[in-house]
Structures are given as structure tokens and as C-alpha cells.
Specification:
single chain, 69 residues, mainly alpha, 41% helix, 0% strand, elongated
Length: 69
């Protein structure tokens, strides 16, 4: 009355090919994302109320310039 049988074992070459395909697709995806992020310009410019990135002398992150109320 066994309804379920053990699935047949896959050949080693098939398992290796699947792993290699998965690795190649992951690498291609990462490369595509990198190239896309380098070539596409942002949709909008930086917000004017955001501080600019700090220069080489240091930043002003966390320093309040005026009253907070």
C-alpha cells in the first residue's frame, strides 16, 4: 500500500550544473544591478533641506544651528 516512492536520485552532473547556473545567474544579477545604478540618474535632485555631505575637515551631523521649536 505504498503510495509514495522515493524520488530517483539525480546524477551528480545535474546537481553541479544547477549550482553553477544559480551562481552564474546571481553574478549576472549583481553585475546588472551595479551597471544600472552607475548609469541611471536619480529621478529628483537632492532635497534642499538636507545638509550636504561633510567635507574632508569633518561633518556637522548632530549639531543644531538654531532653536528647535
Amino acid at each position: 500500500m505504498a503510495r509514495h516512492r522515493k524520488p530517483p536520485a539525480l546524477p551528480v552532473a545535474t546537481v553541479r550544473a544547477r549550482r553553477q547556473l544559480a551562481a552564474c545567474l546571481a553574478g549576472a544579477s549583481a553585475l546588472t544591478a551595479t551597471l544600472l545604478s552607475l548609469t541611471v540618474t536619480p529621478a529628483a535632485p537632492s532635497a534642499p533641506d538636507r545638509p550636504h555631505p561633510p567635507g574632508p575637515a569633518g561633518g556637522t551631523v548632530g549639531i543644531s544651528v538654531g532653536p528647535l521649536w
